Every structure is written in structure tokens, then in C-alpha cells.
Amino acid sequence: MGQGSSYSHSSFKHDVAVNPERAPEWLSPLARHRDIGAESAVSRHLSARSAAVTSANGGAIPGAKHAAVLMLFSGARGSASLPEDAGILLTHRTPTMRTHSGQMAFPGGRIDPGDRGPVDAALREAWEETGLDADAVTPLATLDMVSVRSNGYPVHPVVAYNHSGAKTWVASEDETDDVFVASLEELLAPESRLTVGWGGWSGPAFRTNGYLVWGFTAALLAGVFTASGWDIPWHSERIYDLEDALAQSRNRERHD
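Now predict its structure.
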């Protein structure tokens, strides 16, 4: 991993190319519009109180400056609207990890000095964590940077499409103990969505495969779903206690 190198947009001019024109029609709006409002949506959901929750679950990675996450979508190419088999790749972080243990996440991590940019870093991290073959996916877009914490380092969400049905698995047991494609139909279902709260903070969450997705990952999912026009009305006003929701999940998050 890199040790705190600084980056600017000009540093990424040699990054792996994105190809929005190769997106399936149902992913085209997300692929072709870099600014989809995800940054404001995530910022709205992640307040300073949210940063305190994240810190309580492991804290920031010392020396990190920029990071990238891979939002890898899959589903029928020929569909004009969201297909029934649409999904997104998620990982469960090993509960024994020092940081963010037991949390649900997208594949990703710090942009190392040897990476060409966010896309290259996201694909590398996905290969390390899930065995994903970079040649089997099509990078479509890099969304506007967002921050995990109110004063934290920026994260570059990279949108990609699994055009070849590439398989994934737990490639690094030190980092993840479960890797799977979450059904978008399940994530968007009203019974799978909830608002969780802790100590004055509240934010979106999702239930999938027995896990609870919350925090940064859930906020980014919620922002993308809204911006893409995929939302189904659900009862967002009721706030569930985060600790209770986690206790009913498979997350096994460790709170320090």
C-alpha cells in the first residue's frame, strides 16, 4: 500500500480508460453523467456524527490520501430498463481486521503510487480481494469524489460493468470472508431498506443476504439509486437503532 502520496486530477491522466459508450442501456445514465449528485447525497447521509461512528469501528487509515472503490454492476446487456438479474458486487470485511471489521463494502482501497489512477487502483484492489479479472469488466465512469468522513480523504467511486460474467471469490481471507453479487431487486425492495440511527446520527441502510449495509457504502448506494431513477417508495422516516439492526445481521462488527 502507498504511504500518503498526494494526488491531483492531473496525476490520473494515464489511468485506465473508461468507456461510457459501452454501457448497457439501463446503465447508460449512470455511465454518461459523471456528476450524478452522488457526492451531495453521500455528504447528506454522512455527517460528523457518522464520522464518529466510523471511527468507533476502527478509525481512518493513517497516511491515506486518496482511495478508490469499484461499483461493479452485472445484468442483462440487452435490457433498456433495470433487468431482473441486475446486481452489484459487495464484500464482507473479515471481523478480525483492524479497521472497519465486519462491515460491508465495495472492493477498494488506497491508491498506491504504482497505480495509474482511481480506475487502475479499483481494479487492482478488486483482483486482490475478489479475484476479479480486470480484462473481464468494462470500466464505464468515475463519479465525483466523495469523503468517508467530514475531514477525511477523498474516495473515487468507479462504475464498471461485468460484461463477461466474470466469477469472484474470497481471494484474500485477511481482508474479506464473503464476496457476492447482491441483487439490485432485493436492495431496492422496500422491505430491504431502512434508516438506522446512532447517537444523533441517522442514515440509509440495506439488508441483503443476511447482512446490514450501512455507512459510506449504503450512502453511496442510496445516492446512485436515486440519481439513476431506480428508487421504489419505502418508509424512510422510521429510524431503527443501529446496534439492534447489526445484532440481527451476519456482520459481526467489532466495536472498539
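The first strand starts at residue 67 and ends at 74.
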